[in-house]
Amino acid sequence: MKIYIIGAGPGDPDLITVKGLKLLEEADVVMYADSLVNEELIQRSKSGAEIVKTAGMHLEEMVDYMVLRAQEGKKVVRVHTGDPAVYGAIMEQIALLKKQNIEVEIIPGVSSVFASAARVGAELTIPDLTQTVILTRAEGRTPVPKYEKLRDLASHQCTIALFLSATLTKKIVREFIEAGWSEKTPVAVVYKATWPDEKIVRTTLENLDEDMQKNGIRKQAMILAGWALGEDIHDKDYRSKLYDKAFTHGFRKGVLET
Fold first, then answer.
1. Residue 1 and residue 88: Cα distance in Å, rounded?
2. Mean pLDDT in the chain?
3. Which residue ranges of the chain lie beneath pLDDT 50?
4. Fold entry, domain 2-110
């Protein structure tokens, strides 16, 4: 018996993987987080498939339902928003499924962090500027491990992507400033990346809280911070070695200027 956990992508129904869509179209039972996954995607399920909304279900209820249907010989898919590997809450489901001897296969999806970067036209790793991206969230009602406090992570001065943090912007700004960030550091906020009602806000660290309040963004937002997000980044001469004509690698011999 096997259950499939599928990453649906950030919102645009066309951003699911080919493999994920194929499984969705074959499934007898489709369980999905109806508060986050686009209904247009779920409509691509096959005729007669059992569609189960899970926003109102608790963990054990969801798992018991999946197990029951799998034991009946049904092909069950569980559809998650974005990519299940990041804030997907899948490990707790898998742990319970394994106790029932249910195999799980995970199909990756497009994360909202990369969809957001695409929508603002950003490369998050710029040669000679930053080569590291930290994916994290600000500490709110749910604590973070003591070695992952936002101020400590921000001390690396690299690109930071903040999930689940739209209501904690004052805290974000304070901890970034305490970590030595400039108030002028560029920030891009993408609300509901790739959805029809997507909203993009370009701002700076010092204006982040005010601009998010002004735009009414209090949930479903990806916050990207760092100098790689500067709107003038394309005017600067940051170049990788990969395409440098003087750089030799396994597929090309470098050409030195004379």
1. 22
2. 93
3. none
4. Cobalt-precorrin-4 Transmethylase; domain 1 (3.40.1010)
State pLDDT tens for residues 120-145.
999 999 988 999 999 999 998 889 99
* Triad 89, 162, 134: Cα angle to 5°: 90
Encoded amino acid at 76, one letter: V
3-state secondary structure of 64: helix
* Residue reference for tokens 């319970």: 96
pTM of the shown model: 0.90
DSSP strand pairing (133-137 vs 221-225): unpaired
Annotation: CATH topology of 113-233:
3.30.950
Encoding tokens for residue 120?
């603002």
Side chain identity at residue 116, one-letter code: S
Q: Where do the DSSP E strands lie in 108-242?
A: 133-137, 159-163, 186-191, 199-204, 221-225
